[in-house]
Amino acid sequence: MAKYDPLHGHLRRQKTATYEMTFPDVERIIAGLLPKSAQRSEWWANETDPQTRYVQCRAWLDAGYNAFLIKGAERVRFERR
Questions:
Q1: Which has the closest alpha carbon to 46: 79, 7, 9?
Q2: pLDDT at residue number 49
């Protein structure tokens, strides 16, 4: 299982058009720490290129969401695609 698969499963179960999570929420779901780079919006990029180095984006994109960092709040907003 990939590190961010639990996040994918969690997002697939959501029924709302937008869904916000704190970094600790995400870390609890993935049972691990987010990297320091998660504090930058680039880490939450909605990269559709299959060759991307941002493998974490597959978790939310494949669940039908785009991710947007809420700067300075250690929160991320997921919006249904």
A1: 79
A2: 85
The residue type at 6: P
Chain-centroid distance, C-alpha 16:
15
Query: What are the phi and psi torsion angles at 73 (to 5°)?
Result: -120, -5
For the chain, what are the domain ranges?
5-80
* DSSP per-residue letters across the chain: --TTHHHHHHHHT--SSEEEEEHHHHHHHHTSPPPGGGGSGGGG-----TT-S-TTHHHHHTTTEEEEEETTTTEEEEEE-
Structure confidence by residue, pLDDT tens digits, 22-60: 999 999 999 999 999 999 999 999 998 877 778 899 999
Bridge partners of 22, per DSSP, are: 75
Considering the entire predicted model, what is its pTM?
0.92
